[in-house]
Amino acid sequence: MMCKVQRCRISSRTVFALQRSASQYKMAPSYESLVKEAIVLIDLFNGSAQCLDAFIEDVSKDLQKMDASHKNFILDVVSGCVEHKKLLDPVIKVFYAQIAKHISRRDCSQFVIICYLLTFALDDLGLRNFSNIVKSLDIKKMQLFLVFFFTNLTTAIQEEWSMIYDAAFVETQWILPLLRWRPEIDLLIGQLAVMSSGNQMKKAPVKTTEPKEFSLTKPKPAAVPVPELIPLQEKCKPVPVSTYQPPKEMQKIEEIKKKNQQRTKELLIEANMNQFSCVKPQKSKHTEDMMTQIQTDLDAKLKFNSFHASGLPPSNKAMGKPVKLNSTAILRQKTLHDRRAEEELQRMQKLVEGGHELSPYLQWQRDMREQDLQEELAMIGRRHLEGRISHEEAAAARVHVVERNQKTAQLTKEETAELMKKYAEQRLQEEKGMRELVQQVADGHKNSKLAKEKLHKFKQDIVREFSKQNQELLRQALEEAQADLLKKFEIIREARTRPRNLPPCDRGNHLDEAQVNQETVRWSLSLQKEQQQKEQQELLERVRSLRKEKQQKEQQLQDAMETIELHRKVSAKAAAIRKEEEQKRQLAIRQRAAEDETNLALRRKLEENRKERERLKQSQTAKAQDTSKPAAFKVTTGQKLVSQKSWEEMEKRLEGYIERLEKRMSLSQTTPTPAVTSTTPSVNVTTLTVTPMILSSTTPGCTALNTSTCESCAPGFLYDNNTLMCSCCSVPGQCLFPGACLPCTKGFYQPLSGQQQCWPCNRGYYTNITGSPLCNPCPAGSFNNNTGADSCTSCSPGFHSSHQSSTSCAPCALGSFCNSSGCAQCQTCPGGAEALQTAAIGCTPCRPGMHKPPHQTLCQICSSGFFQIHWGQENCNVCPENHYCPSPDVSPIQCPGDAFCPEGSLAPSYCMETFFRKAGDTCEFAPVTIALLVIGGGVALLFIILVVLRRRRDTDSELSVARAPLLHKERPQGRYYGIPCDAEPVYAGW
Asked: Where in this chain does the record put each Tyrosine-protein kinase ephrin type A/B receptor-like domain (predicted)?
């Protein structure tokens, strides 16, 4: 430990004390005495000279008479403090360096044990036992240590611990659990402060009565009236927001009106568009079967809508084309071929020498892979069948799934809220650190700005001076160059103007020299020509040798390519054989997987479920048809007879038409007539029973009069080929009159006219009317994530959508909320309140000890020296003078009598005992200190005087010896330096 306390081995006296304390602890149910005993043991342990295990064994033997739980507690605390020495030492070191400079080091063990209990044993002890332990020790010191520990927990202490262990581990294992205990520990600190101030309260001295003389002539001063206190007015309740908003009932009434109007329009359109059911008798089953068979035969014979798909392109087109390879590629392939051949030879050699053959192992490996593949395919098929079966059975379990999902979503929301709360606390600490860092950076920017300006000016001055010097040097160089040119021009001019006077005898010599030069040139040219011929011959020989080498190399490459091609063909043939075998094997595996008993059972079960589902569907369809018959079918007996006759007449006509059509098809099978190609078997010919018409040659039931009045379907409506009024028209998308077109259902639209299908509305759009040509965008505050929607969903509370045509709602950010559905914007939390999670539906007020200005997002802890004891405040109050605030959520505590507390004090400041005393807001010397200083000053002054006198005496003696003359005994003068004249010669000073 870092405490500088004298440690020793356990002596016999200590053992006796431990035994006596052990007998006492049998009756002690509290932890106070156990903690004090642990303090004594920590003081006795010497880490450099003792082993922890041996020390624990000795102590355990001495505490045998103690209760087992008490003994285990003492041993756990002592061993824990020694084992976690690396973690506890930095905390105690910082505490003594910052706060406890006046506290003795003998109390170090108390702080170590309290720090250990806070960090590792607070959850096991509980707040009550921990409070009793703290109150049993020195209250003032414990208060200072607890205030220091929780004030610096997320700053200095966390930094020290993060240097030893991983930062994430420190935060999750120690910092966050301690922060959860912070409110209870703050209450304990307040109790300790009250107890410490109560113990130090001193009674004020009783004032004695001082008599005063009567003054009869002195007028009595006028009494100043005491000002009356202005009563504080109660805070007015703010005007509710609903006062300035229209009532919701009016909005609901308007919505109901719009829905009723829309419903009325839909009913009107439906009444105008739908025909009476009495004129649409159903076709018999025999008629439908015959019409379906006719259509199938026509399609099979005519094949007017079939297509012929070409096969897949061959994958080996590139292999048939010759590819020219360079020498490098050929040599690389040759090297690869040689390596493979060498490996094959080596393998054969090993087999000849008795090596192990891998074929059985490879065969076993192949069989195992096939078995695994078969099992995998069977499993895939089983999973596919199980998925389809579960899909069939999922309809009955959807309600339970929805309920379970709702519960899971609620739990997820609660967990998310808890995580967001923790995240908000972490962000609070990060923002605090960031503010400090920003302040430091801002200060540095201010200083760096001035330095940049000075540096910029300095660089500008340097550039100016350099440019001036450069211009001066350029000018000098230009002048020097001009002077040199002038000198050269002058010399050339003088040389040209100088006369040349050669003697006549020198002309013949010049001619002889010219002849000699010509001979020399001819000889040099001949030598050069011979040299060129030799070089040409050498070049030709080199070219011949290179060509020969190239031919040899090409021949080698050709041989290598032939070998490689042969090997490649053999390899390709073997690979093709292996591929064919692999395909057969895969096919067999798949067949075996398909014949798996489990899969067959699942298929049978799936088929049973499908048949059951079809049976239920048919029964539901039959019930719907029975219930959908209108009241118009409840006719009399005479009307039933007329209807039955019309049905019989219609079936006879249709049978005659089918016979004539079959005769035509038998006569001309290759070239069908236009009448046959335009036949539409799905036409509802039963309308002839109500309104007899002259049949045309193209479609049964259509007349020239009807087909001449075709009109295109309007936007928002579609062409229905199942009705006679639309199928009579030759152009798709047209009907005899617009009322025959079907309107687009809700959620679908069609902006064009004459179309055969409606388009679903995109995500973010909707339409709640039938026959709509356009889709409306979802308004702000709502969303739609599906296509073909007839309405938009309002955003849930806590979510918002700020623009139209939204496909999802965004959660409100931290610091904002939305307490109603359909919010277009989230509201910012007012000052003194915060939203600790996204998607919040309300704001929570800031806790005591925290504040939040209106412009910030989350609540922040009050700074040191400030406090706030109310909920939901925007600012913190500074700690007043003569008070100190150990925690930001505790009321200011009166400063003790022997300490002073200036404004904004975190803890009381004490004067050093015996030598100082309190005087207002400072410490002054005590009388004893002044007396000691005076005595010490006098002693020092006396010592200085003695030293000066001694040094002066020594100096005088040295001077007297240096200046003393040699005295002679015959000198007649009187006495010199106390020596008679007739004495022997001596030196002065001897």
From this structure: 740-772
| Integer Cα distance of 902 and 745 in angstroms | 80
φ, ψ for residue 748, nearest 5 deg: -125, 155
Q: Could you tell me which of 25, 13, 36 has the C-alpha nearest to residue 66?
A: 25
E strands present in 358-461: none
Overall size of the chain counted in residues: 990
Question: What confidence score (pLDDT) does residue 632 get?
Answer: 39
Closest CA to 111 of 132, 154, 141, 70: 141
Q: What is the DSSP letter of 926?
A: -
Q: CB–CB of 790/816 below 8 Å? A: no
Q: What tokens appear for 658 in the block?
A: 């089918």
Nearest to 835 by CA among 848, 825, 846: 846
Report, in this order, helix, strand and coil percent for the chain, each rounded to 5: 60, 5, 35
Whether the CB-CB separation of 193 and 894 falls below 8 Å is answered with no
Q: What tokens were used for 238?
A: 């703010």
CA atoms within 13 A on the CB side of 73: 23
Where on the phi/psi map is residue 74: left (φ > 0), alpha (ψ -120 to 50), or beta?
Answer: alpha
Contacts of 555 (CB under 8 A, 6+ apart): none
* The CATH number of the domain covering residues in 709-777: 2.10.50
Rounded CA gap, 426 and 321, in Å?
A: 69
User: What single DSSP character describes residue 234?
Assistant: P
CB burial of residue 134 (10 Å; 0-12, 13-18, 19+): buried
**Model pLDDT, residue 689:** 32
pLDDT tens-digit map of 854-872: 878 788 888 878 888 888 8
> Which residues, including other chains, have CB under 8 Å from residue 760's CB and lie 6 or more apart?
747, 748, 787, 788
| Per-residue pLDDT, 22 | 36
Give yes or no for a contact between 986 and 979, defined as CB atoms under 8 angstroms apart: yes
Residues with pLDDT less than 50, the chain: 1-29, 200-201, 317-319, 502, 504-511, 628-643, 668-701, 703-707, 962-990
Residues 6+ positions from 684 with CB-CB distance below 8 Å: 280, 283, 701, 722, 723, 724
Asked if 744 and 718 count as a contact pair (C-beta separation under 8 A), the reply is yes
- What are 799's strand-pairing partners? 811
DSSP three-state, residue 905: strand
Which residue is associated with the tokens 């219930």? Answer: 627
Distance CA 15, CA 396 (A): 77
Sequence-distant (6+) residues with CB within 8 A of 357 are 351
User: Which residues, including other chains, have CB under 8 Å from residue 657's CB and lie 6 or more apart?
Assistant: 700
**Has this prediction a pTM greater than 0.70?**
no
Burial class (CB in 10 A: 0-12, 13-18, 19+), 671: exposed
Q: Is the distance from CB of 80 to CB of 114 less than 8 angstroms? A: no
Q: Residue 6, class by beta-carbon neighbours within 10 Å (0-12 exposed, 13-18 middle, 19+ buried)?
A: exposed
User: Do 83 and 51 touch, CB atoms closer than 8 A?
Assistant: no
DSSP 449-500: HHHHHHHHHHHHHHHHHHHHHHHHHHHHHHHHHHHHHHHHHHHHHHHHHS--
Delimit the domains of the chain by residue range.
12-199, 411-484, 641-704, 709-777, 926-990
